[in-house]
């Protein structure tokens, strides 16, 4: 058995960043643990190229749509 893995009854390791240790209250902490909210941001450079390009395409489409919306409001 791998000794690095924690058993569910053992406490979790303390997180490195202090903002990750902040808990608003017990209810939100419990909800975050049950729902599984990620505790760190996604690293795009570590993702496959297809996922990165899809992300860039979505961001580009949102930006172009916002510019077109602003231009259509100004023109009218």
Structure write-up:
- There is one protein chain.
- It is built from two helices and no strands.
- It is elongated and about 60 Å long.
- The chain is mainly α and 76 residues long.
Structural class: mainly alpha
Largest sheet: none
**Number of helices, where a helix is a run of at least 4 consecutive DSSP H or I residues:** 2
User: How much of the sequence is in beta strands?
Assistant: under 5%
Helix content: 40-55%
User: Span between N and C termini?
Assistant: 69 Å
Order of helices and strands: HH
Number of strands: 0
What's the overall average pLDDT, rounded?
Answer: 79
Q: Quick one: overall form?
A: elongated
> Whole-number radius of gyration?
21 Å
Q: Which residue ranges are poorly predicted, with pLDDT under 50 across at least 5 consecutive positions?
A: none
Considering the chains and any ligands shown, give keywords for the structure:
76 residues; mainly alpha; 2 helices
Reconstruct the topology from this structure.
Elements: H1 26-35, H2 49-75
In short:
The chain is an all-alpha fold.
